[in-house]
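Is this the right way to post structure tokens for a design question? Let me know if I should format differently. Anyway, here goes:
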């Protein structure tokens, strides 16, 4: 059976997902590209050979010729559209964050549990990135010994036009909140957040530095700098008692010129995580086909924990004090 997918939101990420579905996802067809802007929907649909375009996301989710929904519209639309897909009985790949506030994440969790089967995968694609996967495998097989620290850097050339200062914590850092929690297989107990002296916290892209404590006793630090100017640069190191692992970004060429040896940085995140997006979307298609969530994939509970951590991070930054992150038992429904 071919799975007919609607992509909702055809901006930078939605267009990327549409290209993967159309060109690299055997078993799926790009049925509808839906965007609030009909021009944007048409442009992406024409490029990818989608069967139809639309501008109303709720009507798109309800269509009888749509089997599954990929949500890549802005953060504040995610929860309502995910809830609509659950109501329609259609599996969803929802871009991160699941919702910008934890109360909306809980609404999604309640609806999914009430529906009695999993419908939601959250777009924390770094779980599928080969460099993080190797880091996790080396921790899990004992090579590194007990994990003690994880360092994370997340740098963008410039902040997107719609960014606010706090989106460093609510929109960018959730990637690190999720992947560090995934690699370490733990939950956070607290977060502290800092900014360099003289930085205007409301300025989009203003750097933020966070330190999290985990239930497993590790420290996780995260630098988010969305005005790094020089290139898209994600780095990470996991430090264990017997060794450490650095993430390597895929580098396809080294340039030797003018007495220098250079590697290029990409202008945004897509090349760095291209393989992760592809593997994520393939895993989601298997989930749609079988009803069985892919073991590595982030579910709605993971989405909730990332948003809860972001909320505590915002509180920590505004109060200038360490914020406790409420512990909660993962419901049996999400232990897969
Ligand atoms: N996983 C990742 O690495 C990653 C990277 C970037 C962005 N994202 C997430 O992807 C989502 C989209 O980000 P983007 O950078 O593509 O943004 P974007 O602004 O480029 O695109 C958003 C698109 O959604 C459309 N839109 C707005 N409201 C809509 C609605 N109600 N229904 C249908 N379409 C609507 C807009 O017209 C626009 O074309 C965000 O939630 C963002 O956090 C994830």
């Amino acid at each position: 059976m071919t799975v007919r997918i609607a992509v909702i939101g055809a901006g930078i990420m939605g267009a990327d997902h549409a290209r993967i579905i159309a060109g690299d996802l055997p078993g799926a067809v790009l049925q509808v590209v839906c965007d609030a802007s009909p021009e944007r929907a048409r442009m992406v649909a024409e490029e990818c050979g989608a069967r139809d375009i639309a501008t109303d996301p709720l009507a798109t989710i309800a269509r009888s010729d749509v089997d599954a929904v990929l949500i890549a519209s802005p953060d504040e639309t995610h929860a309502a559209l995910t809830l609509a897909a659950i109501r329609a009985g259609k599996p969803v790949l929802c871009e991160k964050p699941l919702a910008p506030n934890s109360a909306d994440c809980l609404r999604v969790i309640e609806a999914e549990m009430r529906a009695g089967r999993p419908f939601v995968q959250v777009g924390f694609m770094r779980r599928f990135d080969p460099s993080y996967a190797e880091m996790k495998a080396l921790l899990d097989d004992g090579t590194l010994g007990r994990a003690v620290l994880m360092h994370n850097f997340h740098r963008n050339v410039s902040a997107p036009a719609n960014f606010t200062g706090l989106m460093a914590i609510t929109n960018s850092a959730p990637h690190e909140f999720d992947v560090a929690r995934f690699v370490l297989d733990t939950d956070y107990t607290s977060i502290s957040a800092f900014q360099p002296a003289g930085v205007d916290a409301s300025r989009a892209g203003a750097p933020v530095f966070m330190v999290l404590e985990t239930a497993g006793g590790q420290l996780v630090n995260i630098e988010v700098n969305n005005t790094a100017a020089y290139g898209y640069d994600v780095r990470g190191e996991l430090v264990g008692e017997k060794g450490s692992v650095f993430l390597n970004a895929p580098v396809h060429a080294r340039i030797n010129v003018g007495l220098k040896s250079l590697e290029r940085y990409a202008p945004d995140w897509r090349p760095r995580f291209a393989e992760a997006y592809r593997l994520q979307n393939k895993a989601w298609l298997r989930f749609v086909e079988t009803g069985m969530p892919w073991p590595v994939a982030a579910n709605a509970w993971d989405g909730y924990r990332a948003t809860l951590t972001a909320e505590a991070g915002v509180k920590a930054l505004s109060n200038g004090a360490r914020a406790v992150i409420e512990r909660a038992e993962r419901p049996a429904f999400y232990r897969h």
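Format looks fine. Someone answered above. Worth noting: Residues 178 and 306 are 6 Å apart (CA to CA). The mean pLDDT is 97.
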